Amino acid sequence: MGYCFIGSLVFNTTQKEEKMKAPILLNYRNRVLEWMGWIGGILLAFCGLPEAIKTIFVGSCALSWGLLLMWLFGEIFVLIPVWIAIKKNWLVMNYVANIMFVLVMLYYKIFGG
Asked: For 28-87, what is each residue's pLDDT tens digit?
């Protein structure tokens, strides 16, 4: 048995009522976390887009080889376990988008305009 506070009113609650509230709160929390994951995944996935666009318009990539290669292999090595084991769509989208942006920059780094 517990107590439910609403303003200055105090109500007795039974264990059954408390158990009924728990799934609703967990479901809401899970939805909030899922949305946070999607928003973060989208932002991280497209953070390379401005540099890829600049690279295309300028016709060359000013980023160092070390950064580009570490970025590419880091994305690939993280994508593999996420794809196989974790299976979170927003993570997969993040890594695939970043791989595409890095490949654009590598293309311009190797071949120029």
From this structure: 788 888 888 888 878 888 889 999 999 999 999 999 999 999 999 999 999 998 888 887
Range of the domain at 103: 2-111
Judged by DSSP in three states, 3 sits in strand
- Exposure letters 10-41 (e unless 16+ CB within 10 A, then b): eeeeeeeeeeeeeeeeeeeeeeeeeeeeeeeb
The DSSP 8-state label assigned to residue 83 in this structure reads I
Nearest to 65 by CA among 99, 109, 104: 109
Q: Is the pTM of this model over 0.70?
A: no
Tell me how far apart the alpha carbons of residues 72 and 56 are, in angstroms, rounded to a whole number: 18
Report the domain count for the chain: 1
